[in-house]
């Protein structure tokens, strides 16, 4: 199958719903990742090399092979020699890429992450891989893991105004819409650009994105955003933040947005919209919906899930920030248990890698095991990976508001349970 563009047929392109063509392209993308793991080099389009004066071009056959965890391990196949660019020349390394991949996957089906980038680039493997590498580089440079490993108090001490976003209720997650997508509410009138450092707002945005990902429960893969424009004035407008948010959805968390409702936008907003609209990728733009009344909002969110502050809503929910509790992150100090659980998780990763390599090659060799058998084993391993990840999660990730509320949304097994007061 050539690495060209194909259109996604209706209802396909997601885990468990792939056409044969899409499956082959997914295999190609996994093969590219394994080539990085084996050689530390990959085919990279010129656009990914803006700062490289003299790229170190190497043949795969001339590059020392490295295993997934850095140890020596033979590759499953020996493809024909091809021109490669060493990842070090673009500011990435094998040792960085592996954590970037799996820290991004979390407890999801591993195929899900790759498919997001493939769909975002219309199933062009080279373009999808370029996009994925750029997202990994951003996650490393911006230290995305920081918002997961540090408590809200620690983040607030480093970034002025971080916790204020939560205390004000400027943005929070609550409930799901009619399609089962978790809902992020943003009360725009509460935002004043000067009230917090710009970096604090970016870190809080990443915090919401990374926390929200835990609430997206399979087979759902996207979220619903409600930009509540009630009371909006030009003093609330923050163009730099809008640019960052757009970049997140387009480049760093592709295919994560299901619908973005701009709710009750006042007349003054339409001048702002003329500036913002050209920044949007056409795919993202199609997911924006203007809801002019609460009745229109109720077309997206069931009344039982919609807070009573909106007309027709029956959920007597009122947002309240619950501060960090003393000792809630003590398990992160238990390095012995952490290391043991990490090793158990990594052992399953090794099995998943080996099985995925077999899956890539299974239809190319005589005597290979049936693809359906391998796929069933891969599916079971993804379930084992999820269980293993959430066992180690409290030892490597700080607890959030959604872990410590009276009725915690985020459960120990990775599920999300919403309570509605009807």
UniProtKB/TrEMBL annotation:
A UniProt-annotated Pfam family: CRAL_TRIO_N
Stored CDD domains: SEC14
Ranges of residues in domain CRAL-TRIO: 173-318
InterPro entries: CRAL-TRIO_dom, CRAL-TRIO_dom_sf, CRAL/TRIO_N_dom, CRAL/TRIO_N_dom_sf, PITP/CRAL-TRIO
Listed name of the protein: CRAL-TRIO domain-containing protein
Origin organism lineage: Eukaryota, Fungi, Fungi incertae sedis, Mucoromycota, Mortierellomycotina
């Amino acid at each position: 199958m050539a690495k060209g563009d194909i259109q996604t047929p209706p209802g396909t392109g997601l885990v468990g719903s792939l056409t044969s063509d899409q499956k082959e392209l997914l295999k190609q993308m996994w093969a590219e990742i394994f080539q990085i793991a084996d050689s530390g080099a990959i085919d990279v389009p010129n656009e990914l090399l803006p700062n490289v004066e003299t790229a170190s071009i190497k043949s795969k056959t001339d590059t020392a092979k490295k295993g997934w965890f850095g140890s020596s391990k033979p590759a499953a196949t020996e493809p024909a020699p091809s021109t490669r660019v060493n990842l070090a020349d673009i500011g990435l390394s094998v040792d960085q890429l592996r954590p970037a991949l799996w820290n991004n996957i979390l407890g999801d089906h591993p195929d899900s992450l790759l498919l997001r980038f493939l769909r975002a680039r219309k199933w062009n493997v080279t373009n999808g891989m370029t996009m994925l590498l750029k997202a990994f580089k951003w996650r490393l440079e911006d230290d995305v893991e920081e918002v997961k490993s540090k408590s809200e108090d620690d983040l607030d001490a480093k970034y002025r105004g971080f916790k204020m976003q939560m205390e004000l209720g400027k943005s929070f997650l609550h409930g799901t819409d009619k399609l089962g997508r978790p809902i992020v509410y943003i009360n725009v009138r509460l935002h004043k650009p000067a009230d917090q450092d710009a970096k604090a707002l970016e870190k809080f945005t990443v915090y919401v994105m990374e926390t929200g990902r835990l609430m997206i429960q399979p087979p759902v893969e996207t979220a619903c955003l409600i930009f509540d424009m009630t009371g909006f004035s030009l003093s609330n407008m923050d163009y730099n933040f809008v640019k960052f948010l757009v970049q997140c959805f387009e480049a760093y968390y592709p295919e994560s947005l299901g619908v973005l409702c701009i709710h009750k936008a006042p007349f003054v907003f339409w001048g702002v919209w003329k500036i913002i609209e050209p920044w949007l990728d056409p795919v993202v733009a199609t997911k924006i919906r203007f809801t002019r009344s609460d009745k229109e909002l109720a077309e997206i969110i069931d009344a039982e899930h919609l807070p009573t502050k909106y007309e027709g809503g029956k959920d007597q929910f009122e947002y309240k920030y619950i501060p960090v509790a003393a000792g809630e992150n003590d398990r992160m100090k238990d390095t012995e248990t952490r290391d043991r659980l990490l090793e158990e998780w990594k052992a399953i990763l090794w099995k998943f890698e080996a099985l995925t390599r077999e899956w890539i090659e299974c239809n190319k060799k005589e005597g290979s095991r049936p693809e359906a058998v391998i796929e069933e084993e891969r599916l079971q391993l993804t379930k084992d990976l999820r269980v293993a990840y959430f066992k180690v999660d409290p030892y490597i990730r700080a607890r959030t508001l959604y872990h410590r509320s009276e009725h915690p949304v985020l459960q120990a097994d990775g599920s999300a349970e919403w309570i509605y007061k009807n």
